[in-house]
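Re: that backbone. Tokens:
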């Protein structure tokens, strides 16, 4: 096993054991207590601090942000149910501030300009359904490849340019343009 593969395996194990990806490079603000009279129950396992300083998480109303004083909801009740936005497990963002969201068995994008959600295709092994997997980690590599870590079906790589997804299997021969190896 090459040094790159050993490093990648150690990195992925550490991410899986830690349960989160530290996605921010800047210092994030510290809130001693967040209290808001109209905030519904927070249902998120994950809080994400976007580049513009918003705290993103899930509530019973779906995708929600908080800037320290104002709560904003980005999904309606139908979207929250359809995309399972009341149980967000991980998030990351690209250079255009679009969000990539992992939930119970789904990965979707949220375009902050158009306010649209798009479900990404996933590969399911025989017998697995989106209800039997859990998205644990997302990592965006140079805004081209989205690495998706699952609790039960390994890892998949989504190419944001070609819109193709493949199972991540170390050592498989791949397209020369794919940075999956």
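Recovered sequence:
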């Amino acid at each position: 096993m090459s040094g790159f593969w050993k490093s990648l395996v150690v990195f992925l194990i550490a991410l899986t054991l830690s349960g989160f990806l530290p996605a921010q490079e800047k210092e994030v603000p510290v809130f001693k207590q967040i209290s808001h009279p109209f905030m519904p129950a927070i249902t998120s396992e994950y809080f994400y601090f976007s580049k513009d300083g918003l705290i993103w998480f899930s509530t019973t109303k779906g995708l929600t942000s908080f800037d320290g004083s104002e709560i904003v909801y980005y999904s309606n009740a139908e979207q929250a149910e359809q995309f399972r936005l009341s149980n967000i497990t991980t998030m990351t963002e690209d250079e255009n501030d679009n969000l990539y969201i992992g939930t119970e068995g789904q990965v979707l994008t949220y375009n902050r300009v158009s306010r649209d959600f798009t479900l990404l295709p996933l590969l399911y092994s025989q017998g697995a359904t989106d209800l039997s997997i859990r998205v644990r980690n997302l990592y965006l590599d140079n805004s081209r490849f989205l690495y998706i870590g699952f609790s039960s079906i390994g890892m998949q790589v989504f190419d944001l340019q070609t819109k193709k997804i493949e199972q991540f299997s170390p050592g498989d021969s791949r397209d020369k343009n794919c940075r999956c190896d």
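The radius of gyration is 17 Å. The first strand starts at residue 48 and ends at 49.
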